[in-house]
Amino acid sequence: MRQEETDVGWFKDVFDEHYGHIRNYLYYLSGDIALAEDLTQDVFVTLWEEQRKNRKTTVRAFLFTVAKNLYFKHHRRQNIRFNFASSLNQEHDQESPEFIMEMKEFDKKVQLALAGIPEKTRAVFLMSRIDKMTYTEIAESLNISNKGVEKHMNKALNLLKEKLERKL
Predict the structure, then answer these.
(1) Class (C level, CATH) for 86-167
(2) Cα 164 from chain centroid?
(3) What Pfam families is this protein classified in (predicted)?
């Protein structure tokens, strides 16, 4: 069997095993399924280009690292801001203009506070609070322990509380 055929077989196996996990991880980070699918394709293109160098390392860790880096690279380029309006379950048509303005201001403060916490901590927080994932699901997606997820959640909550108290 030629090296090319071996590479294609190995790549297909890795793709089949990890595609869904990487796409879900990127979806949890971005909240945008189309973006998650695009970035997942980029992850596997990177793997294909780097495969000979990375067979010695853990493929799963490599894929999640590439996924995270691509997402945050995209995030910085697009200056995407997290939108929490949908999670507030409000009916804006029936609310007063003052209330709507206050909620918009509060949303900005929350977004700024979230932007100021470390990437992994923010990802854990959003996966738990916005996507309603369990600590076990988050741990598997990020390849960290349940204790690590707990520590990141505590850190996120404390940092958000501290930042929001200063802004309010």
Answers:
(1) mainly alpha
(2) 22
(3) Sigma70_r2 (PF04542), Sigma70_r4_2 (PF08281)
- What is the domain partition of the chain in residue ranges? 3-78, 86-167
Q: What is the mean pLDDT of the chain?
A: 77
Taking phi over 0 as left and psi of -120 to 50 as alpha, with beta for the rest, 133 belongs to: beta
CA distance 54 to 66: 12
Token digits for 53? 């160098």
3-78 and 86-167 share one fold? no
3-78 folds as Rna Polymerase Sigma Factor; Chain: A (1.10.1740)
pLDDT at residue 116 in the model: 84
Looking at the chain, the whole-number percentage of residues with pLDDT higher than 90 is: 14
Q: Which string of b and e fits 69-107 if b means at least 16 CB within 10 Å?
A: ebbeebbeeeeeebebeeeeeeeeeeeeeeeeeebeeeb
